[in-house]
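Saturday, quiet lab. Running sequence design on the structure tokens for the scaffold JK sent over.
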């Protein structure tokens, strides 16, 4: 089916990663069909999409994996603390066990160091992956170049973070340290309870990430993509291409890109690949707040969430809950976010919205990007965890490079689907 018009490629998933893949593929001359039961222009899609509710941050310094040396000693305390950043549905423990064992394996010092180097390389190329997409989507007006602030209440907390700071410096992350007075000068509305701060100078945020997704979708459709608003029930290899099954129909493509976020594991299984992908349920609380209450994304790492001032209010987003796709929202999780935000920022107003979304997370914090080991005509682009917004552009660039047979911007071996 390949001709002078390029290959016919299905992209499963119309979120930030799928749309970034679609636009990069179109820029390489390929013909794209998007599959998603809830396209970005549908009212139902907004509340379901990670890009609707994330922390809005392009976190170019986020090169440390979640699994860190010694975390196995910290997890029990986190789980026992009602206000801690981690919770779990215990009835899901048998299903989670393989993922958790791989997570513990990734926390070994040598593995942590290796994964940090891979993420560091990805972060160094992330901005180049975004630039052409921001331009084509007309999204420059959404960008806020602000830096990102991490906070520490005392010297002991800051010393405990020193190992991570050193690793980030090794990976070229630009940072500056603030004392208590400089924190107050930068963020006068914060409660005066912090001893030191760390500014990630190259980080920035989008005032409305979901608006960016909608503009990306508009750009992709404007280039002639076909959109099929159906749930994909399967993928099947055939001699002449790859079949996508949706409803009672099937379509034949030269290539298929699986960018279905937290729903990607089942699609990979149809191809014959068993990937270690699970769901981190993340929450946000939107408060009524004056514009500019914070100058940029602000995080107290011990609480596990970011606070970001947006045009619509103050968004506090984050925490981790391991519990799959089918469980309802836990009000206790949003209550903790609300309580802690009011301690950090006493002047926030009433709660305007609470939200639950699903991060597609791997045990080693590295996404799955590249050809399926079972059928190289199927390409994977999922598992970005906390950095989907940050790495979406680079992911699309890498997928287009693979399809075109070009050398990839970074090596894909650490990101392969069969690494576990």
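Result came back. Writing it out in full:
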């Amino acid at each position: 089916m390949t001709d002078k018009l390029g290959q016919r490629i299905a992209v499963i998933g119309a979120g930030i990663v799928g749309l970034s893949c679609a636009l990069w593929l179109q820029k390489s001359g390929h013909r794209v069909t998007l599959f998603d039961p809830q396209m970005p222009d549908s009212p139902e899609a907004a509340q379901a999409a990670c890009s609707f509710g994330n922390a809005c941050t392009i976190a170019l310094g986020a090169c440390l994996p979640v699994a860190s040396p010694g975390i196995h000693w910290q997890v029990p305390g986190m789980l026992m603390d009602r206000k801690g950043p981690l919770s779990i549905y215990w009835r899901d423990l048998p299903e989670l066990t393989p993922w958790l064992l791989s997570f513990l394996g990734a926390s070994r010092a040598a593995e942590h160091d290796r994964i940090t180097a891979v993420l560091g390389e990805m972060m160094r190329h992330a901005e180049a992956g975004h630039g052409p997409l921001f331009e084509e989507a007309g999204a420059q007006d959404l960008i806020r170049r602000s830096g990102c602030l991490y906070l520490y209440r005392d010297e002991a907390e800051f010393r405990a973070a020193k190992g991570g700071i050193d690793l980030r410096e090794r990976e070229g992350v630009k940072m500056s340290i603030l004392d208590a007075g400089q924190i107050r000068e930068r963020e006068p509305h914060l409660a005066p309870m912090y001893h030191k701060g760390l500014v990630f100078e190259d980080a920035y945020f989008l005032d409305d990430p979901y608006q960016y997704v909608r503009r990306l979708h508009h750009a992709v459709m404007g280039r002639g993509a076909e959109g099929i608003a159906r749930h994909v029930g399967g993928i099947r290899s055939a001699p002449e291409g790859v079949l996508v099954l949706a409803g009672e129909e099937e379509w034949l493509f030269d290539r298929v890109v699986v960018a279905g976020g937290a729903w990607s594991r089942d699609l990979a299984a149809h191809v014959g690949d068993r990937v270690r992908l699970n769901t981190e349920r993340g929450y946000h609380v939107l408060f009524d707040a004056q514009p500019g209450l914070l100058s940029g994304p602000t995080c107290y790492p011990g609480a596990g969430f970011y606070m970001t001032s947006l045009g619509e209010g103050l968004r506090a987003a984050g925490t981790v809950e391991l519990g799959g796709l089918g469980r309802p929202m836990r009000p206790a999780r949003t209550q903790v976010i609300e309580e802690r935000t009011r301690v950090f920022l006493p002047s926030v107003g009433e709660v305007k919205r609470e939200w639950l979304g699903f991060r597609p997370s791997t045990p080693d914090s590295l996404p799955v990007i590249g050809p399926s080991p079972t059928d190289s005509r199927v390409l994977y682009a999922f598992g970005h965890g906390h950095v989907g917004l940050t790495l979406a552009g680079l992911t699309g660039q890498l997928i287009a490079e693979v399809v075109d047979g070009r050398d990839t911007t970074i090596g894909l071996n650490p990101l392969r689907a069969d690494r576990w």
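Notes for JK: The first strand starts at residue 8 and ends at 12. The chain has a mean pLDDT of 93. Ask whether to fix the surface positions before the next round.
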